[in-house]
Description:
- By secondary structure, the protein is α+β, with helices and mostly antiparallel strands.
- It has 3 domains: 56-140, Structural Genomics Hypothetical 15.5 Kd Protein In mrcA-pckA Intergenic Region, Chain A (Roll), CATH 3.10.290.10; 146-208 and 295-318, Alpha-Beta Plaits, CATH 3.30.70.580; 213-291, Pseudouridine synthase (2-Layer Sandwich).
- It is built from 6 helices and 17 strands.
- Strand 13 and strand 14 form a beta hairpin.
- Helix 1 (86-92) crosses helix 2 (98-106).
- It is elongated, with a radius of gyration of 38 Å.
Amino acid sequence: MSTRGPDGAGPGGRPPRTPRESPARRGSAGPGGRPSATSRESPARRDTPPARPPSPASAGLGHDPDDFDVDDDRDSLIDVPGGVRLQKVLAAAGVGSRRHCEELIGEGRVEVDGETVRRFGARVDPQHQIIRVDGMRIPSRQDLVYLALNKPAGVLTTMSDDRGRPTIADFLGDYPERLYHVGRLDYDTEGLMLLMNDGELAHRLAHPSYGVLKTYLADVPGPLPRDVGRRLLSGVELEDGVASADKFRVVEQAGSRALVELTLHEGRKHIVRRMLAEVGHPVSRLVRTHVGPIALGSQRPGTTRPLTTREIGELYAAVGL
Length: 321
């Protein structure tokens, strides 16, 4: 016999107890209508991208290019199979330490064949690809040599002479590479000469169509008339055509001697001597001080020095390479 009342009340007329719903099983509302802690989305579980591994430079491991092999999609350059890591090529070219080169790559300042590269592990072919830093091409090939020679007077601009006279080869040491001299200097002319085994660059530097300027200091008899500069700049008639200076200035005058500076972009034989003789001031001593952006400076006669990475890049820029 049932002990519940007609309304389903329990003994004593009390309504039956219904099972209480656990807070964990109620929708999303906790006490006071607030979302329960178990139903709120945890910040750690939101759709956040995974953390990128630290770069070699930021991790302090930039000295060895094999510390990290960062492989992401920050550029579209296709790696060269068996190529050399980009930061290693930059460091070998004299751009800076591996760590510094990685920083340059990370900052987007390095281009390979016109493509900005931001990957530390990018592999390139330094023999054939053109690499630039801050827009300036670097000498990436390790077999290329670039030298500046201060040629003394009384030396032939050739690598050998069957009469045994001094040649520029006597000042080059034991370089195994075949070096080209960029243009020529007369036997009695001294000063800056560039030598290299980069055939394309040497050709462009020597060709007058690229307009690479050469600057000379000349000792001539004084005093100089006021119009000598105007005549040289406007052009003087020589036996093989008109020749004109791009720049001219008087450095100093003292009695019967004057020192003048001429800048020209052409290189016809004895051109400076012939021009100054034509205006009545034959040269007693001639020194070339600049070839394009390269300066002779305080380099001693008869010595050679390697060009810096920046100087080579400036030569490339001067001829559009």
